[in-house]
Structure formats: structure tokens, C-alpha cells
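Section 3.1: Structural characterization of target chains.
Under the original work plan, the team committed to producing a structural model for every single-chain target entering the pipeline before any wet-lab resources were allocated. The record below documents one such target. The sequence was received from the expression subgroup and is listed exactly as submitted; it comprises 290 residues.
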Amino acid sequence: MGISTGIALAFVAMLCWGFGDFLIQKSARKVGDWETLFFVSLIGAIIVLPFFLMKDLVMIFSSWKNIAVMGSAGIIISIAALLDFEALRRGKLAIVEPIWSIEIPATAILAFVVLDEHITLIQVLLIVGLVASMALVSFRDRSISGKIFIEKGVFLAFVAAITMGGAQFLIGWSARIVDPISINFFIDFIMFLVTCAYLVRHKRLRGSFSRFKNNIGVMLPMSISDKTAWLAYAVSMTLVPIGVATALSESYIVVAVILGILVNKERLHMHQRIGLVGSIAAAIILSTTI
């Protein structure tokens, strides 16, 4: 496998994440954030487990560095995923998704600092344009009192984007020092333990399976799509620079936003539409410069 395969896998991740986020929003609104993440991680772990058991487990767990990096990735992505799901539950796809474009610079900066992957001047300018465009998307029109109100889910989406940027970097790093299969199983297992403990403590676990059964048409394809995206993304980061894989896969916002507008009938103000176009354009152009 070479660079072309890595790029192709990044686009697979883009498509699967776009449809996955659309379904995650529906699931989070119907059954809740914790239940959604519980089943995403459970099904993901089940899918990957047979392949994980074929690995040299002694070699993987004999290194404290491997355990530390994978453990950190699992914990951070659990936090980021819950923030993501809550942002999707509260906000519009067309608003939340462009905010997540900031995952690109967050991941790229970490790759630069830790792994010495460089960022050019044009990339810095595009990042600035990306942030400015997201600012337009984030604010509603002025009210009668003249105050500017933040769109629902925007603050959570911003925090989630920064957190997910760190998680994506750690996943890419783990995929390189261990392997993509192992890191995917590890993060799913950690998310499963965290969400299972929460649901048990709040006496919601038994009811979660009933809600899953009632919403299986949404939750099963959601979980499969999400796991396919993470596997494709992790493998792509072993074949091309982390910044390249992240920038290309982040184009999933185009898919999710289009679904939000066409299927959910979400409406945007003019300045939000301008910001939406600007953020998507900046993200796509940025992906071609890395």
C-alpha cells in the first residue's frame, strides 16, 4: 500500500463520517449521548476484536509507551465523542459540522510540534480564513435588543473540535507505533468501559438495549459507518502524513452539511451561508496544500 491508497482511505473516512454524523445526530436526539456512544463503541469493538486477537498482544502490551499513547487516545476521544454527540444533539448539522474544521489545524499543529510535520505560510493563511469563516457560521442575526446570540451547540462543537484534534493526533501516532487495528480496538474498549459504567450507575443500561432494538435501523448503520471511518482514517495516517489524512478526511463536513440542509431542512441566514461556503472552501483548499 502506498500514498494513493492512503489518500483513497482518507476519502472513505470522509464519506463514512459524513453519513455517520448524520445518523449520530438522529440517535443522540432519540436515545441520548451516552447510549449512542455505548453502542458505537460496543459494535466497533465487536467488529475489530477478531482481527485484534490475531496480533502479537505480548509485543503490544510489553511497551509502556504503547500503553500510554493508546490509553491517552482512548480517554481523550471518549471525552471528545461525548462533546461531539451533545453538540449534534443540540445544534444543526449545517452549523456544527463547519466548526469541526478546526480539527485540521489542531491535529496539524500537534503533528508539527511532536512529529516535525511542517506547516507552510499558505496553510497558516488558510487556517486563519477557516477560523474567520467559522465565526460567521457561529452567530445568528442580531435580536431586537441588539445582542448577538450564539447558535446552539457552537461552544460545545468548538471544544469538541480541539479535543478531537488531539485525539486524532494520538490515534495517528498510535497507528504508527503499534498498528491501526490495535488502536481502534483499544479506544473502543475504553469508550465501552466508560459509557457502560455510567449507564450502570444511573440504572440506564437495561433500557438502552430496548432503545437500541427500537432504533436499530439508525443505530446499526451508524455504528458500522463510524467504525469503517475510523479504521480507514487510522490506516491512511500510516501511509501519508497525519496532516494530509486529517485534512482530506475532514471534507466529511461537506457530506454532513448537505444532508443537514437537504434532509433535515435546516435553514441558515445569509452571513451563515457565506461562512459555510468559506469554511468548506478553506478546508478543501487546505487539504490540497498539505
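The chain has one domain: 3-289.
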